Amino acid sequence: MSVDTHETELMLRTVRSFMEAEIFPHEDLVDRTANVPEELGRQIEARAKEVGLYAANMPERVGGGGLSMKAMSLIEREYGKTSHALHSWIARPTELLLACVGDQIDRYLMPAVRGEKRELFALTEPEAGSDAMGMKSNARRDGADWILNGSKHFISAPRLADFAIVFAVTGMDETKRGPRKRVTAFLVDTGTPGFEIREGNKSASYRGYKTYQLSFTDVRLGPGQILGEEGRGFELAGQWLGMGRVWVGTSCCGKAERIMALATEWAANRRQFGQPIGQFQATGFKLADMAIGLRTADLLVADAVTRAEEGRLTDADVSMVKVYCSEMLNRTADDAVQIFGGMGLMEELPIQRLWRDSRLERIWDGTSEIQRHIITRSILRPFGA
Ligand SMILES: Cc1cc2nc3c(=O)[nH]c(=O)nc-3n(C[C@H](O)[C@H](O)[C@H](O)COP(=O)(O)OP(=O)(O)OC[C@H]3O[C@@H](n4cnc5c(N)ncnc54)[C@H](O)[C@@H]3O)c2cc1C
Predict the structure, then answer these.
(1) Closest residue CA from atom 24 of ligand 1
(2) What pLDDT score was predicted for residue 4?
(3) 169 has which bridge partners?
(4) pTM for this entry
(5) Between the N and C ends of the chain, which has fewer C-beta atoms within 10 Å?
(6) d(CA 312, CA 88)
(7) CB of 91 closer than 8 Å to CB of 106
(8) Are the beta carbons of 156 and 73 closer than 8 angstroms?
(9) What CATH topology corresponds to 6-92?
(10) Mutate which of 130, 205, 375 to test ligand 1's pocket (most atoms within 8 Å of Cβ)?
(11) What pLDDT score does 5 carry?
(12) Which CATH number does 236-383 carry?
C-alpha cells in the first residue's frame, strides 16, 4: 500500500523496528510452547506504550493515538506479519468502548486506553457461531437490575481479561418479518459473583493466543452495566465490526507479503535438476499468482478504507475484503508450502507456522461462507429476492 504522508511513513518505520526488536525474536518460542510468558507480554505492552503504539486506534480526546483509518490499516498490515499471540499485547481496545457513558468512562474506557484493563468481546456461543441470533445467553429484569445467564466460548485475548462485553437476549421485538430477539451488550467485570471464566480450546493457528469459556449463572448487573442502549447491542457491534473485518483483510496482506518473500528466496536458491526451482514455470507461476493476489487484495483494502473515510462503506464492501484477502492469503500459504517441498512442513522453518496461522483468517470474524451470503444478499435485495 502507498504511504502518503511523512508522518505515516515515520509511524510505519516505528512499527517495523518495533516488530524486529520486540516481536519477531519470540515467534518460535511462543509457537513451540503455545504460550506467551506473562513477563514477555508485559514487556511488549510497556515498550509499545513507550513508542506510542498503544491504543493507536482510539481518538486523541480519550488519550489514544488518534490515527486515521488509512494509517491504522497500514499498521494492522504490519502486525499481520506475525502471530496474534504476540502483537495482541500491543492493545487496541475495541472502539465499542467509545459508547461508554457516565461512570463507565472511568471504569472501562479510560483504563482500557491506558492499558490498565483488558476487555473481551463475547458474542459466540457453543450453539451460536455464524448464527449469532441463535444465542441463548439472556438477561431478565429484576427491579432496576438485570440477571444474566448463559455461556460463551472461543472468546479470545492475549491474557485473562478484566471485563467482558457480553451480548445477551433481553426480550423479543415484533418486526415485519416476525419476532426478533432484542440483544443487549453488558459490561461484566471478571470476579462478579456467578461469572466464571476459564481457558478454553487451544487453536492450531496463533498458538499461545488464548480462547476462553465464559459462563454466567444468575449474575446480577446494575443498570449502569449496559453498554449503549438496551436492545441495541447488535446495532452497536455493527458500527465497529465492519472495520474489524477490513483490519483482518489488511493483516492478511501483511502475512501474505512475508510468506511470499520467504517463498521467493527459497525458489531462487533451492536448486534441482541443476537450476533454481523458481525457473521451472510450475514454481515461478505460483510466485506470479501470489503477486497478483497480493496487489489485488491491497487495492481492495485501500478502496474500503477510502469508502469508510467518505462514510459510504457497505456491509458487502467489507465482506468482499474479508473473503478475498483471507482466501488470497490461504492460497499463498499453501503454494509456499509446495514451493518449499518437504521442508515447508518442518518445524525448523517458519513456513508451516505461517500456513497454520493463515487458516484461521477464513473462519473468525465471520466465515467466508457468511461473507458470501452477505454479498449475495446485497446483490439480490434490489430485486426483492
Ligand atoms: C481462535 C478463535 C478466536 C475467536 N475469538 C472470538 C472472540 O473473541 N469473540 C467472539 O465472539 N468470537 C470469537 N471467535 C468465534 C468465531 O467468530 C467463530 O468461530 C466464527 O464466527 C464461526 O462460528 P463457528 O466456529 O461456530 O462455526 P459454525 O457457525 O458452526 O460454522 C461451521 C461451518 O458451517 C458454515 N455455515 C454456517 N452457517 C452457514 C450458512 N448460513 N451458509 C453457509 N454456510 C454456513 C460456516 O461457514 C462454517 O464453514 C473466535 C474463534 C476462534 C477459532
Answers:
(1) 129
(2) 64
(3) 138, 183
(4) 0.96
(5) C
(6) 29
(7) no
(8) no
(9) Butyryl-Coa Dehydrogenase, subunit A; domain 1 (1.10.540)
(10) 130
(11) 82
(12) 1.20.140.10
